[in-house]
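<discrete_fold_record>
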Amino acid sequence: MPGGFPRGFLLEDEDGVIVGFNGFIPFDYEVDREPVPTLVTTSFFVRERHRSAVLGMLTRQRAYGKTHQIIDGSPSPEMRQLLARLGYAHSGERRQYFFPTARLGGAAARSLLRTAGWSFALPPGAGSVTNDPLALAGATPPRDGRVHRHLGVTTWQWLTRVGSMPRRFFGLLDEAGAPLAYAIGLYKEKAGIKACLLMDYEDFHPEKKGLALLLRALLDDPRAAGLDADTGLILLSLFEADAPDTVPGLRRDSLLYYQLPPPWRDREKAFRPLEGDLPLI
């Protein structure tokens, strides 16, 4: 356990052959500047003839919940049922909002989507966009009583370069150079339309307008903001606590399960779509 963090379990049969594995990735989280030790589960596998050991491995995993936040993003319906049985909480649905660029109809298309409740109005543009995480060094999560992933240049650089899909960091600064928001966009193409999915983000604006201002800047001057030239659509996913009250968006399922350890069990958690082991995909 380098650094005191468990890295997972190996399951061996009676001959000492490895027949199962449950991996952990240590992450830094915090609540109101207080660290919350966190383990993200990944690479859970058990050979077919040893399936009876699955519940035991999950029980051992859950035991770390006495000292660590445990985050699990398993896509398997069977695994999700087991996690619910073991007392893991679910993040709830996320809402997806659509913002077509000029290549896909621009302001007129966004107006139609607002009528359908799949988009929301953006404030007038302000601030400048940077693609360099160093420009936002020193930005910290809001002190709102919720559990947030620790922010920092090293984390942003890692989240931007890992995984199989191309990614881009977008930071918004005000006229004085203070951070207003950041987002990490993943590029994905489907049916000939290239979309930038904003999957990790934080809003530093005192009135929580930072993300909306960043979206406005990306749409008003995509080239200056570093958005890929052939991007036709920007998508933003928000969970219930951060979503606009009056705009339903398109409901999407979330695979995120978690449990918080004492003394943080009564705290709320801030959710981001790019959480758990999803950054590795």
Helices lie at 54-63, 77-85, 106-116, 153-161, 210-220, 222-225. The first helix runs from residue 54 to 63. Residues 2-92+255-280 form a domain with the Aminopeptidase fold (CATH 3.40.630.30). The chain has six helices and 15 strands.
